[in-house]
Amino acid sequence: RKEVEQDPGPFNVPEGATVAFNCTYSNSASQSFFWYRQDCRKEPKLLMSVYSSGNEDGRFTAQLNRASQYISLLIRDSKLSDSATYLCVVNVGNQGGKLIFGQGTELSVKP
Amino acid sequence: DTAVSQTPKYLVTQMGNDKSIKCEQNLGHDTMYWYKQDSKKFLKIMFSYNNKELIINETVPNRFSPKSPDKAHLNLHINSLELGDSAVYFCASSPLSVSLETQYFGPGTRLLVL
User: Fold this and answer.
1) Strand B53-57 and strand A32-38: pairing?
2) Alpha-carbon gap, residue B53 to B42, rounded angstroms
3) Residue A25 host element (H or E)
4) How far is the alpha carbon of A91 from chain B, nearest alpha carbon, in Å?
5) Cβ distance B21 to B44 under 8 Å?
6) Which of residues 36-65 of A touch B (CB under 8 A)?
7) Residue A98's pLDDT band (boundaries 50, 70, 90)?
8) Phi, psi of B90 (to 5 degrees)
9) Mean pLDDT, 10 residues at a time, over chain B (114 residues)?
10) A81 three-class SS
11) DSSP track, B24-48
């Protein structure tokens, strides 16, 4: 079983749609959680951290369920510029910030 | 100003050659990392250094040798390159060696071994 699992997609949605990505992780000792975004042929960049209480940043909402070891990302009112690969990332943190990446979910927003 | 920079951006070489990739960060971070992203886009950590000391060494062939001359630099030397080494190699840095801090990635080095 992969340490961090995501649906690879692709998700093809029209502009303005709401889209949700899910992620599960296997290491119950994981300490912190993130969503990163990676554009084609670019480096990953932090989109947002994920907190147990849930957190929102504009059109983006992230949720964490530690009991189920489940992380989600909701994007409302999708824009063309949201097209990218979204990486679910877990930091097991035992030795200096070890990030474990999911394989990513590809999102394509169409006009 | 580029926060995390890597050179070269592209590297095409023959099997059996030895090559190096350089990484520098001007963020004042304590910890630096090397990641490999393969053709399936799966990003996996290889090494991590904190203040020039090796912290993480994943199951990586010993043909790969990281070197950190100071905490702002982490270079990756690869001996006897193989076809399977073709990938994108990302350097990253973070301000602390504890779990809550996020990491900042360089632009990547695209290595193609022929």
Assistant:
1) unpaired
2) 26
3) strand A19-25
4) 6
5) no
6) 38, 42-46, 49
7) confident
8) -110, 135
9) 90 97 94 91 89 83 93 95 96 74 90 97
10) helix
11) EE-S--SEEEEEEE-TT--EEEEEE
Least confident stretch, A10-24, A38-52, B51-65:
B51-65
Q: What angle do CA B107, A77, A89 make, to 5 degrees?
A: 40
Residues forming beta bridges with residue A62, ordered by sequence position: A55, A73
Burial class (CB within 10 angstroms; exposed 0-12, middle 13-18, buried 19+) of A71: buried
Which of B33, B56, B108 has its CB closest to that of A43?
B108
State how far the Cα of B15 lies from the Cα of A66, in Å rounded to an integer: 45
Residues 6 or more apart whose CB falls under 8 angstroms from that of B12 comprise B111, B112, B114
A27 inside 8 A of chain B by CB: no
* A32, closest residue in chain B (CA to CA): B100
Are residues B94 and A97, on separate chains, in Cβ contact within 8 Å? yes
Provide the β-strand partners of residue B45.
B35
- Of B52, B54, B41, the closest CA to residue B87 belongs to B41
The type of residue at B17 is: N
- Using a CB-CB distance cutoff of 8 angstroms, which residues of chain A are in contact with residue B2? none
CB contact under 8 A, A92 and B99: yes
Tokens of A19: 């889209």
